[in-house]
């Protein structure tokens, strides 16, 4: 089960209700007891989250490009196949038409 939030100018965010907040946001453990301010922690978490989302966007962009290229290739092969099939059908029809005995209207006179 998930909820979607739309932020103006950004992609749709999906928050899964079955995921704990620690798993949803990449919380970094404290390093050697140094205390950072909550604003710095928030900024760092947002940077990590943005980096993760950018990687997802890149993967989605690559998938979209791959699907688009495959669809254009499919359409190109379909058009070429149609042209070759039409050529073969019409060339056989032309051969059958030329093999018919012609009735000579001058010979009947």
How far the N terminus sits from the C terminus, by CA atoms, comes to: 91 Å
Main sheet summary:
2 strands, antiparallel
How many β-strand runs?
2
Structural class: mainly alpha
Q: Estimate percent helicity.
A: 55-70%
User: What is the global morphology?
Assistant: rod-shaped
The topology string of helices and strands comes to EEHH
Strand percentage lies at 5-15%
- Strand order, main sheet: write it out: 1-2
Arithmetic mean of pLDDT: 77
The count of helical stretches stands at 2
Low-confidence sequence ranges: none
Query: What would you report as the Rg, rounded to the nearest angstrom?
Result: 33 Å
Explain the overall architecture.
- It is a single chain.
- With 109 residues, the protein is mainly α.
- It has a two-stranded antiparallel sheet with strand order 1-2.
- The model has no long low-confidence stretch (mean pLDDT 77).
